[in-house]
Amino acid sequence: MADSGKKKRLVTLVGLLIVLLLGALWLAGNVMQSSRGSRKDVRAQAGQPQPVVVKKQLPAPAGSAANLGEGAELAMVRKKLPQPPPAPELPPSAAPAPEPPQAADAPPPAQEEKPAETAPAAAAVSPPLPTAGPPDAQAAPTAPAPVKPEPAKPPERARTERIAAPFSILLSSCRDRENALAGLPYYRQAGLRPYVVQTDLGDKGTWWRTLTGSFKSLDEASHAKKAFNLADAVVVKTPFANLVGAYPSEAGAAEMAARLDKLGHFPYTVPGPKNSVQLVVGAFLAKPAAEKLQRELAAQGIASQVVQR
Q: Which end of the chain, N or C, is surrounded by fewer C-beta atoms within 10 Å?
């Protein structure tokens, strides 16, 4: 009896499990169908093309027993129609240019009366006919002689008198221009007014001399050398220079001096007659060296004159 009861319970349990399994399968199938339907709805909302239903009558296959009648049901065929391709975008250059507005017809030019051809203005006026009267009154008036325009006065050139200061103090002499320029701040701090002169020494080559001052005599230059404690300096005679201009003051010569400095020259001033200031460039022992610098200045648009210091 006990074994038969256990078998009944076992059979009942197995039957319940089968029922539960079948119910679970049924429920899963419904869930899958609902999910498929929702996916189709999502695709339709996303703008995917839907198949278009086209009703067409299919011809009967060859060898069939009978053809379809007029009232036969049309077969349902799902067919996806091709969509028209999007219109190509024209590049900006291909866009048709707007037609230029047509200008209104210009009115015909007014016809002006052309005066009779005449000679130049000077000859157009004919002298009046002589009338009876004294011989002086009958004489035809003579045209005044043409007045020649006065030529423009050239700018005032530098004075040509001698500066009379042929001596300088030679501070240093360098083979390179950069080395000569490097020593200028030192001399300026000592209260000197140095200037650099390019000097051709022939077989010895080209040197850059740093000089200062313009003195009337050897004694005056030597005294200045001792006053500035320039033990290594040498008094040299450099009588030729290039005079650029005479000015009433140092301030008047400042503009031209700045222009010369910008062009790579080293201008300096010396006292001139009547309390004037003379702007000078260069200091040479021989006149040809000064003439060479004069040509260089002329090529740069600076007029100068070779003078004796």
A: N
Give the strand pairing for 167-174 and 194-200. unpaired
Residues 137 and 140: their CA atoms lie apart, in Å, by 8
Query: pLDDT tens across 128-153, in order?
Result: 444 544 444 444 556 556 655 554 44
Structure token digits, residue 88 = 């190509």
User: What single DSSP character describes residue 212?
Assistant: E
305 vs 165: CA distance, rounded Å: 16
> What pTM, to 2 d.p., does this model score?
0.48
Q: Residue 284: what are its φ and ψ, rounded to 5°?
A: -130, 155
Say how far residue 259 (Cα) sits from the centre of its chain: 25
Residue 186, helix vs strand vs coil: helix
Q: How far apart are the first and last CA of the chain?
A: 156
- What does the DSSP assignment read for 102-117? PPPPPPPPPPPPPPPP
